[in-house]
Amino acid sequence: MKLVIRLKPQARADLVALRVWSEAEWGNVKTRDYLSGLKQAFARLAGNPAIGRSCELFGPGIRSWNYRGQIIFYRPIENGISILRVLHERRNQAALDFADQAQR
Q1: What stretch of H or E contains 100?
Q2: For residues 70 and 83, is the Cβ–Cβ distance under 8 A?
Q3: Phi/psi at 21 (nearest 5 deg)?
Q4: Which helix (H) or strand (E) is 102 found in, with range?
Q5: pLDDT of residue 75
Q6: How far apart are CA 3 and CA 18, in angstroms?
Q7: Cα angle at 20 between 67 and 91, to 5 degrees?
Q8: What is the radius of gyration, based on Cα positions, of the chain?
Q9: What's residue 58's pLDDT?
Q10: Going by fewer Cβ within 10 Å, which terminus of the chain is more open, N or C?
Q11: d(CA 35, CA 41)
């Protein structure tokens, strides 16, 4: 069975912004390694979505997982996960609104 990892548009935008910032701060090699590790975290979550912490405060079924300073917000789906956002851990999480994304 192939695991499904869906990136919502805001998650894609988060990853682009993370890549741009990381390349400016750390250079291409470290950025590539960091993003590779992040993708491995996505795969781990897709294979075992229950390992993340429940974030029902943001909406039904939403969970989170911390990867080296980034918090992956996701929702388990059939055979995998739907990634809603990938945000720095210092971001004001209380201001986030996942209502639209959690239903898709």
Answers
A1: helix 99-102
A2: no
A3: -65, -45
A4: helix 99-102
A5: 96
A6: 24
A7: 45
A8: 13
A9: 83
A10: N
A11: 10
The pLDDT tens digits for 68-99 are 989 999 999 999 999 999 998 765 555 455 54
Residue ranges of domains in the chain, CATH in brackets: 4-102 (3.30.2310.20)
- 45-84: string of b/e by CB count within 10 Å (b at 16+)? bbeebeebeebeebbebbbbbebeebbbbbbbeeebbbbb
Q: How far, in Å, CA of 43 to CA of 60, rounded?
A: 22
| Cα-based angle 37, 39, 43 (whole degrees, multiple of 5) | 115
Task: Transcribe 2-56 into DSSP letters.
Answer: PPEEEE-HHHHHHHHHHHHHHHHHH-HHHHHHHHHHHHHHHHHHHH-GGGSEE-G
